[in-house]
């Protein structure tokens, strides 16, 4: 029973980390600035139409929201496949999991140091975008663009995604591994849907986050560095025990 509840407490913590990592990925400098033009392209409308609140443009924005939903479905497809692969890897290297956690912890801490500005890793500042073709305005095209996004922005969101994949590898459960990647996809995808639905009202919020990109990067760096340190030292399991003792209700999860 203790092992089961420990896993539940650990999963609750990992799920929270995955959601936060997804949200911070959305707010990153290589994602947030391109959200409005991507939404306009996927909806087959202009940026002016996207920002217009008049009734005759609301139908166009509804198409944009539908396209955004298929876009999120596309990137979620890739993330779930990666989650399945990470869990399979964790099962295959079970005997070497301690070494994997040690190596993954070091790599994640290095990525965290990059976002904190301690060091600079060149390839993390590049965007390797994939072209989904001239398919703007269609749900299928938006789905393809979501697939391309998940692959093409790997250098930018790779550290965050890699952190969640490392946690999925640790778990060894396909259900929980896929769950973590689904939560990460929600953290990244739900803001896309909110912007598509309420873009004219959210322009101020988008501008605010753009002005504070440096702080967002430092928060992401601190999260990466902390999780990397916990993986390196085995503190993640110890913190799960602390969660279970502090919040006994977690023992009722699952």
Measured by DSSP, the beta-strand proportion falls in: under 5%
Query: Could you say which structural class the secondary elements and strand pairing correspond to?
Result: mainly alpha
Percent of residues in helices comes to over 70%
Cα radius of gyration in angstroms: 19 Å
N-to-C CA distance? 12 Å
The quaternary structure here is single chain
The major beta sheet can be summarized as: none
DSSP E strands, number = 0
Number of helices: 10
Morphology: globular
Task: Describe what this molecule looks like in 3D.
With 254 residues, the chain is mainly alpha-helical. The protein has one domain. Helix content is 78%, strand content 0%. The longest helix has 38 residues. The N terminus is likely disordered. Keywords: Cytochrome c-type biogenesis, Membrane, Transmembrane, Transmembrane helix.
């Amino acid at each position: 029973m203790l092992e089961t509840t420990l896993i539940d407490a650990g999963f609750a913590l990992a799920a929270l980390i995955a959601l936060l990592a997804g949200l911070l990925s959305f707010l990153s400098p290589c994602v947030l600035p391109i959200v409005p033009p991507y939404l306009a392209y996927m909806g087959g409308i202009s940026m002016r139409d996207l920002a217009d609140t008049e009734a005759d443009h609301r139908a166009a924005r509804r198409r944009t929201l539908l396209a955004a939903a298929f876009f999120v479905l596309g990137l979620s497809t890739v993330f779930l496949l990666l989650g399945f692969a990470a869990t399979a890897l964790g099962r295959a290297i079970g005997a070497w999991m301690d070494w994997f956690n040690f190596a993954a912890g070091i790599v994640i801490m290095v990525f965290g140091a990059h976002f904190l500005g301690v060091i600079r890793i060149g390839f993390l500042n590049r965007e390797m975008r994939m072209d989904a073709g001239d398919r703007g305005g269609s749900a299928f095209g938006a789905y393809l663009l979501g697939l391309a996004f998940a692959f093409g922005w790997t250098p930018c969101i790779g550290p965050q995604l890699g952190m969640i994949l490392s946690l999925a590898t640790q778990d060894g459960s396909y259900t929980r591994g896929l769950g973590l990647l689904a939560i990460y996809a929600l953290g990244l995808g739900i803001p896309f849907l909110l912007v598509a639905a309420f873009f004219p009202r959210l322009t101020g919020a988008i501008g605010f986050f753009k002005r504070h990109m440096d702080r967002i990067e430092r928060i992401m760096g601190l999260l990466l560095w902390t999780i990397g340190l916990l993986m390196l030292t085995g503190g993640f399991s110890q913190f799960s025990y602390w969660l279970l003792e502090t919040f006994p209700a977690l023992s009722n999860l699952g």
